[in-house]
Amino acid sequence: MLHLFRWAVRRKRRVMAVRLIPTAEPESFIAGDSVEWSLSLPDYLPTVWTASVVFVNASKQFGARGYDYGDGTHRLRLEPAITALIPAGVYAWQRYVSTATDRLCIAQGSTRVSPNFATQSSGIDMRTHARRVLDAIEAVLENRASEDDSYVMIGATQITKLPHADLLALRSQYRREVANETSAERIALGLDSGRTVRVRM
What we know:
The protein is an alpha+beta fold. It has 2 domains: 22-117, Sandwich (Immunoglobulin-like), CATH 2.60.40.10; 129-188, no CATH class. The protein is built from 5 helices and 10 strands; from the N terminus they run H-E-E-E-E-E-E-H-E-E-H-H-E-E-H. The strands form 3 sheets. Strands 1-8-7-3-4 form a 5-stranded mixed β-sheet, with no helix packed on it. A 3-stranded antiparallel β-sheet has the order 2-6-5. A hairpin with a 4-residue loop joins strand 3 (50-56) and strand 4 (61-65). The chain is elongated. It starts with a helix and ends in a 13-residue tail after the last helix.
């Protein structure tokens, strides 16, 4: 019995050690991590087509090229040395399949890259762009803006140069954006959106 118990424990450990490979592009990952995923594309078999994904935002572009994994799927991978150089932010992506003569875009989406805490030498601002701008607007309106707040730009205009009425309008706009982000984060964590639903009787 003891022998069987030990065998069962070892087998369970081996099963737990198996890493599950995602079957779609990552919704998010941390800079410096290895990122791997598998694509099952029955209409574009890896024996004929090559899959690739390109990620891009305003300042950075990177990508992954798939290969035939041997089981009818495409396997794509971003090495840690590559992801370590990717700035944190949200990246749009497009998935392509190609042959020697054809190329098709068959899917698109977005991925969030989070910073690698292990490489940070000092504190890091984890606020989203909308939250940073909203905080700066409110600081200017309340006459407590720091030097960093003062250098925030709205389009091509420094925030401290904007008329009071424009700041009030922008505050309402960015409050809505922050509320949407907060709701999305809560939903992603399995919580309710945090918003009040009004029912008219």
